[in-house]
Amino acid sequence: MMAASDMPKGALDGLFVLDLSRILAGPTCTQLLGDMGATVIKVENPITGGDDTRGWGPNYARDTDGNATDLSAYFMAANRNKLSISVDLADPEGQATLRHLAARADIVIENFKPDGLVKYGLDHATLCAAHPALVYCSISGYGQYGPNRNQPGYDLMAQGFGGMMSITGDPDGVPTKVGVGIADVMCGMYATIGILAALRHRDQTGEGQHIDLSLVDASMAWLINEGTNFLTSGKPPVRRGNAHPNIVPYDAFECSDGHFLLAVGNDAQFTRFCDALDIPDVGRDPRFTTNLGRIENREALLPAITPAMRALPKAEIMRRLQAVKVPCGPINTIPEALGSDQAQARGAVVEMTRADIDQGLVRLLANPLKFSATPVQYTRPPPRFGQDTAEVLETWGPKPDA
Question: Is 91 domain-assigned?
Fold first, then answer.
């Protein structure tokens, strides 16, 4: 195994991030930055016991005596490659410490309510004025301005307000959120992109800037085709379950022993699909030979193809369709997905060593980026609350007066 000293440097090696965020959107961003080599200092509140998600069980890494630690599975999902320091923002000494670290930082990221850091002297206006090269990213529920700016931001509210829930779920059922905090995660992705773009600008001009990003703005942006479907037609999209508004057939279908996924992306694939399932007449029916025709005649098409699929087991359907290059696939459980040959080949799960944890390690979802020259590194497992305070303050903190 290659020694840590021999590992190539990460793409963001040398960047210093002061992370004042918590929960998921901000931590998703800073974990990505840390994975790519940035030094990330995660600031946690000693009054509350740190990031809220440390207490979001029921699943926790356990210590060598079998006791639950403050490393919840939720917290560990977004907090590797960071150093945790315990600092009280309400304490003037703590504020001074953070202003000192901000002076050293390339990036500051926070997710307080708008103007929530003004009283501490840690808001973007104060720090950017003091440090013109600083890239400062603010994440909030609705943004730094607008009529809802003071409303709290949670993933569920963003999925609802932004329109995503109106198109997710059974057509006759209750509007449904995505099964994970996707509004938070996508906001964290946008934050990462914005920060990297701002760093590029800074490196060219010496000028930092403030990035104002909201969960709701991000949620509306990733309405993608359904958003532009509405803007083009004026017709509000509807819930279709697993079906696609612009492609037919594209759905989860019943077979004799369960369900599978089918995604017919073009007209030639549809003809091959029908031939493979021994219903060639359907593939040549003029109502169905084009995707537009299949969309317009969706209600007639589905009864024509579903009996053939219900009559066959999943393995046989997939064998036939894969043989003629028609896209199809299983509906894996999470254990099946993470245990698959594909996941193992691509390194979807990473193990990180922690001597104070039962079995000496934690298992995490890996970063999906595969760099050829600056590979993602897993140098620090998710930290216990405040574990790096002394190290960080000794290395980068204010020095006592001589």
Answer: yes
